[in-house]
Write a structure and sequence with these properties.
Layout: E1 17-20, E2 23-26, H1 34-47, E3 64-68, E4 72-76, E5 79-83, H2 98-110, E6 120-126, E7 132-135, E8 147-153, E9 156-160, E10 170-174, E11 179-182, E12 191-193, E13 208-214
Antiparallel strand pairs: 1-2, 2-11, 3-6, 4-5, 6-13, 7-12, 8-11, 8-13, 9-10, 9-12
The chain binds N-(carboxycarbonyl)-S-(naphthalen-2-ylmethyl)-L-cysteine and fe (iii) ion.
InterPro entries: Alkb, AlkB-like, AlkB-like_sf, Oxoglu/Fe-dep_dioxygenase_dom
EC number: 1.14.11.33
GO molecular function, one term: broad specificity oxidative DNA demethylase activity
Length: 217
């Protein structure tokens, strides 16, 4: 067998790893369904294009975003919020693809959270240099539900902090096919993504796509 010297071959899912109480890493969990996920991403962003949102503080985000599902997360000068329509088109966000809902349900169950039926999926697109500064996800009304995140494309360094902004974050490399589930005591942990390194992914080229599933309503 040839050794995997370039760390670019996706490995099959083996078992859950506990990062912190309620935070579970499922390395490679989405690897077997990546083609279906990428096809569905392409359909969603054809209807609701990726865009660089502006924060309430007036900064334009380096990550480009879109959504599918009943609700979508948006930001503008007036604040962060979930909406049922895409502010760009006035149309409802594209429906959640079946392969998205199925993967999110199975991943949450694998991490010990049963019956996860998210109503929102945020799609984040990182190009080299794009980053997400340390923040909490607390715009959702149901904080008892976990968040499921799926990484596709170029690898990223994920920063996982504590429940105080000043807690020093632990760094995890997330690669194509990795899934993470954040619930219980980790649901309000500070987290972010370090600037994406240059690279070329065999399937996605110079980008990383992250899907974040939430119960927002
Ligand atoms: C830990 N996205 O969209 S996903 C976000 O890779 C976001 O695009 C990152 O943070 C990304 O809000 C990270 C992993 C993640 C998502 C939600 C969390 C980790 C989390 C909520 C609580 C704790
Ligand atoms: Fe977040």
């Amino acid at each position: 067998m040839t050794q995997n010297l370039f760390e670019e071959e996706p490995l099959p899912y083996v078992a859950p790893e506990l990062m912190a109480p309620g935070a579970v890493l499922l390395r490679g969990f989405a690897g077997a369904v990546d083609a279906a996920l990428l096809e569905a991403v392409a359909q969603v962003i054809a209807a609701a294009p990726l865009r660089h949102l502006v924060t309430p503080g007036g900064y334009t985000m380096t990550v480009a975003m879109s959504n599918c599902g009943a609700l979508g997360w948006t930001s503008s000068r007036s604040g962060y919020r979930y909406t049922s329509t895409d502010p760009l088109s006035g149309q409802p966000w594209p429906p959640m693809p079946g392969c998205f809902a199925d993967l999110a349900l199975r991943a949450a169950a694998e991490a010990g959270f049963n019956d996860f039926r998210p109503d929102a999926c945020l799609i984040n697109r990182y190009e080299p240099g794009a980053r997400l500064s340390l923040h909490q996800d607390r715009d959702e009304s149901d904080l008892s539900a976990p968040i499921v995140s799926v990484s596709l494309g170029l690898p990223a360094v994920f920063l996982f902090g504590g429940t105080r902004r000043t807690d020093r974050p632990t760094r995890y490399q997330l690669v194509h096919g990795d899934v993470a589930v954040w619930g219980g005591p980790s649901r309000l942990a500070y987290h972010g993504v370090a600037p994406l390194a240059e690279g070329e992914h065999p399937r996605l080229g110079r980008q990383r796509i992250n899907l974040t599933f939430r119960c927002a309503a």
